Each structure stands twice: as structure tokens, then as C-alpha cells.
Amino acid sequence: MPDRLVDVQHLRKSYGGVVALDDVSLHIDEGETLALLGPNGAGKSTTIEILEGYRVRSGGDVRVLGEDPQHAGAAWRAGLGIVLQSSGEASVATVREELRALAALYPRARDVDEVLAAVGLEEHAGRRIASLSGGQQRRVDVAMGIVGRPRLLFLDEPTTGFDAEARREFWSLIQGLQDDGTTILLTTHYLEEAAHLADRIVVIAESRVVAEGAPDAIGGAEARVPIVRWREGDRVHEQRTHEPAAVVAALVARLGEPEALEVVRPSLEDVYLGIVAGDRSELRA
Fold first, then answer.
1. What DSSP line would sit under 61-78, residue for residue?
2. Can you tell me the distance from the alpha carbon of 215 to that of 218, in angstroms, rounded to the nearest whole number?
């Protein structure tokens, strides 16, 4: 059985009378990639800051790498890799200089050349970080996050601002880390990214967990019932059905070739939006 690197039970966080997290429970096993999703203000950042040891919780139990982040020391922190959404002003040091300086702070650091190869920056090792493109600088961020050989890597909105090609290249980089056994906690607003990279997804809305599961199963079977859509006269019709082929056959028998016929299978984004909207409706009721 894999080790459980993150175990959160009944986590709560309040700021005065404002509840930021309400009875949140989740876990991450070694070698797993968990995507933590939710709308802005749902509690994702607060959860991650508590797991990283930067914010004190109001209640519940949290164990990260076997320790309570509120009381863990420098040796524990060396087991974490953190790639923030924004790394601030780019350094005037070269890529190799920056990585060597950081590697010296860790007891079991990766070889710098190995890290450069892992993130595809061998050809840019001698360049100043400030002179690199945005995508290349993001690779430097990841290199800095993994040079200490972390058991757990936090990726906070890692591809924000990337074009489609750069995002796909970055996914390949992350998949290489996954193949090496790196455990990852990913936050992203790109649902396709979560579907591509995550083993499991946890959705937080209104300060609590509202759904959890594999990308192709979260939300349950009913959330993925196909929709048959067609035009008849001036009206567009649609029908949710577990038997789309039978519905299409009946339409063809009745109308011949239906106009604008399509069978739509809900994407992860469709399911996610339904989960979040449904949760908000429930809380308003």
C-alpha cells in the first residue's frame, strides 16, 4: 500500500465570523496527483497554505508527510516543493547559478544537471533568468520546486497565461515528474488540465468539499448522461438519454436526416460547472 502523504480530517478555518473552510476532509497517497478545484473564494488557497504550514487552522486534524504542518520544522519543509502561481521578479542570475544556490540548502538535493534535463532547460542553463521567455521562466520555477527532491510538490495554477502549445509542453514536463513518482497537489482553473494530469479531483465550493473522484467519474454517472440535440423547424430540441443511439434512430425514422443533429457527451468542465451550480443552489435553498 502507498504511504498517505496528506491526510486532512474535518479541517476548519474561520476569520472572526467568516468561515473559510467548513469540515474539509481529503487525502493524497504517495505517487498520486490530486487536482483541487473550485471557484475563486471557495477555500482552495486557504487549504493549501494550511498544508504548507503557512497558515494556522481553527480546527480539525492535518498530517502532511506524517507531521502536523503547524509544528513541523526545517527537515519537514525540505520534503516539500512549492511552485507558486507567480514567482515575482525574475532573477538576474543564470539558471544554473540559481539552481546551484538553492540546491545547497537541501540535504538530499537532486543533481543540478539532472534537474535541468528534467525540465528541458539544458540549452538555457547559462542564460540569465530575466532574459528567458515566460514559458521558460515557468520551467525554472518547476526546477526550483523539484531540486530539493521533494516528496510532495504543490503546483498552484502552473500554466496561467500560457498559450495552448506552451501548456501542452508543460503537461509533458509534469507527466515526466509523475513517471518518476512525484506526488503532486495541483490547483488549476483549466478543467482540461485537471482531466489530463490528475488521478483524482476534489472540488471545494462555499468552503466545503462538494465532490471527489477520478476525472472520468466525478459527479456520478447521471452527470455524464449524453444529450441528443437537433433542430426541428425553428426550434432546437434536446434530450438527455442513456440510449442516444436509440433516440437518434427514432429521429431518423421520423424526420429522415434531422437538421443540426449532434450527440453531446458532457466534458469534465460541464460536470464541474454542474457540481458547483448545484451546490450553490442547495446552499441558497
1. EEEETTB-TTT--HHHHT
2. 6
Report the distance separating Cα 252 and Cα 254, nearest Å.
5
Exposed, middle or buried by CB within 10 Å (0-12, 13-18, 19+), for 80? buried
Residue closest to 104 by CA, chosen among 158, 147, 154: 147
Is residue 267 situated within a structural domain?
A: yes
Q: What are phi and psi of 263, to 5 degrees?
A: -110, 120
pLDDT in tens, 42-101: 999 999 999 999 999 999 999 999 999 999 998 898 899 998 876 666 788 999 999 999
The predicted-structure confidence for 121-171, as pLDDT tens digits, reads as follows: 999 999 999 999 888 888 898 889 889 889 999 998 888 777 788 788 889
Q: Which structural domain, as residue segments, surrounds residue 259? A: 221-284
Query: Residues 64, 154: contact at Cβ < 8 Å?
Result: no
Grid coordinates standing for 133? 521567455
Taking only the tens place, the pLDDT of each residue in 165-196 is: 878 888 988 898 899 889 999 999 899 999 99
DSSP states of 146-162 as a string? HTT--SEEEEESTTTT-
The closest of 251, 208, 212, 205 to 232, measured between CA atoms, is 251
Inside any domain, residue 174: no
Do residues 177 and 210 make contact, with C-beta atoms less than 8 angstroms apart? Answer: no
Provide the grid cell at 44: 482552495
Which pTM value belongs to this model? 0.83
Strand partners, 231: 236, 259
How many Å apart are CA 65 and CA 216, to the nearest integer?
A: 28
- Cβ 28 vs Cβ 180: under 8 Å: no
Q: How many domains does the chain have?
A: 1
Residues 6+ apart with CB under 8 A from 10: 23, 24, 25, 59, 60, 61
Q: Is residue 101 part of a domain?
A: no
For residue 256, is it within any domain?
A: yes
